[in-house]
Design brief:
Layout lengths: L14 E4 L2 E4 L1 H18 L1 H44 L6 H19 L1 H17 L2 H21 L4
Antiparallel strand pairs: 1-2
């Protein structure tokens, strides 16, 4: 007949004994880790909250800048739609000026073409920040990178 295994917990130590072998319980280790994490979060609460608030304001500012950019891109595009055919038929307008206007029209069109996707991404990121939805933020990280690449590609090289 096998001998029963006895276990006992040493008070406060989180150790148990089984057949003369002492060990640390997983639950005690996990509890200590969770307590440490809670302390770290409490110590850095103000910083975490400040970062969230700044991120919310940044996405709001970017949204406003985007709205302004699209508004003026549409206006410039409308002017260029009328101006370009005239400029192309005037021999006194230098070719480099014509090319500059053509390039400007292409830039404004890219801004207009990307308006919906950029607005949606900015709005979704802002929503994720306000609701504390980490999954939503992770899902849009790639989209934000795409928006940044698009904007960077539109910026004329100096």
């Amino acid at each position: 007949m096998p001998t029963p295994i006895k276990s006992s917990i040493k008070a406060g130590a989180g150790a148990a004994k089984t057949s003369n072998t002492s060990y640390v319980k997983f639950s005690d280790k996990l509890t200590a880790s969770i307590t440490d994490i809670t302390k770290i979060i409490e110590q850095h609460k103000e910083m975490i909250d400040a970062i969230q608030e700044v991120a919310i304001e940044l996405t709001s500012s970017i949204g406003s800048l985007h709205t302004l950019t699209v508004k003026y891109a549409r206006t410039a595009n409308q002017i260029l739609d009328v101006l370009l055919p005239i400029v192309k038929n005037l021999p006194i307008i230098p070719k480099n000026v014509q090319q500059m206007l053509i390039n400007l029209e292409a830039i404004t069109q890219k801004i207009i073409d990307n308006e919906v996707a950029t607005s949606k991404t900015i709005s979704d990121v802002n929503s994720g920040l306000k609701t504390g939805d980490a999954n939503k933020l992770k899902a849009h990280a790639g989209q934000l990178q795409s928006v940044t690449k698009t904007i960077t590609s539109i910026i004329p090289k100096a």
